[in-house]
Design a protein that fits this description.
This protein is of the alpha+beta class. The protein folds into 2 domains: 79 residues, Glutaredoxin; 179 residues, Glutathione S-transferase Yfyf (Class Pi), Chain A, domain 2, CATH 1.20.1050.10. A 4-stranded mixed sheet has the order 2-1-3-4, covered by helices on one side. A hairpin with a 2-residue loop joins β3 and β4. The radius of gyration is 18 Å and the shape is globular.
Length: 271
């Protein structure tokens, strides 16, 4: 059994797969692709992932892309440690969360991260390298219009058209989590499932960007308690935090802290 994961520390999708593998007790080898330096645009990697995004998994010579699909694949290959419930209705609830992540929360996370932090990080590349970075994204990547949208976010931050709506969408899903956690410790069936794994990197992204005020201070108490349970899991620190380079961790924290007042204002949070 050989599992090779192409990944990066800042990728929420890669973090999801790393956590899934850790929770399943799987051994894997990593190939680190620095997506903030544009390494995902090399011809060799784009043969593996034509969208030029991470993660990508190679298992016994076969390529599996898309983080949700990778996690489902892992649960099918190793069903004895599946994080998808056997009960059909609970399985469906997990899939609802996965579908919401892929279709709505992930694009919102990409926009929030670039508007709050990454635009400042990639600006350090210099004008020429920045333009090369912005123009290298394929026409269809994170979303169908990500090529141009990323340019807007890097240049205008939360002033980009529609950026505030993405912040509100992100907040809406935190409120959906609050409701789902009203009856138990975990999002589905009172058991730790792939739904919890899937949401973890997205809540962690907010925490790393100094935006935990979106649930703390009594705003979303169920999410606050869930987050503490997540942080206590053995898989959390090594799979979510330790892979993020120190300079990127600092960038996310410091840039995010500077952006937090804008986000709080969008959500009418008093700070």
């Amino acid at each position: 059994m050989t599992l090779t994961l192409y990944h990066h520390g800042s990728s929420v999708c890669a973090a999801k797969v790393r956590m899934q593998m850790a929770e399943k007790g799987l051994d894997w080898e990593g190939v680190y692709i620095d997506i903030l330096k544009g390494e995902q645009f090399t011809p060799d990697f784009m043969k593996i992932n034509p969208k030029a995004v991470v993660p990508s998994l190679i298992h016994e010579g076969r390529i599996i892309n898309e983080s949700t699909v990778i996690c489902e694949y892992l649960d099918m290959v190793w069903p004895e440690t599946s994080l998808h419930p056997k009960d059909p209705f609970e399985y469906t609830k997990v899939r609802y969360w996965s579908k919401a992540l892929d279709e709505q929360l992930h694009p919102a996370c990409g926009e929030l991260t670039f508007a709050a932090s990454h635009r400042h990080t990639v600006a350090k590349l210099g004008k020429e390298q920045l333009e090369k970075f912005l123009n290298s994204t394929p026409p269809i990547s994170v979303t169908a219009g990500w090529h141009e949208r990323k340019k807007e976010l890097v240049r205008h931050g939360f002033g980009a058209p529609g950026a505030a709506e993405k912040v509100k969408l992100y907040d809406m899903y935190l409120h959906k989590m609050e409701e789902a956690l009203a009856d138990g410790d975990w999002l589905v069936g009172n058991s730790f499932t792939h739904a919890d794994v899937g949401l973890t990197p997205y809540v962690n992204r907010l925490a790393m960007m100094s935006m935990s005020g979106m649930w703390e201070n009594g705003r979303l108490p169920n999410v606050t308690e869930w987050w503490e349970r997540i942080r206590a899991r053995p898989s959390f620190k090594p799979m979510l935090l330790d892979w993020v380079p120190e300079d990127l961790t600092n960038d996310l924290r410091e840039n995010g802290a500077k952006s937090w007042p804008e986000v709080a204002a969008i959500l009418d949070i008093n700070i």
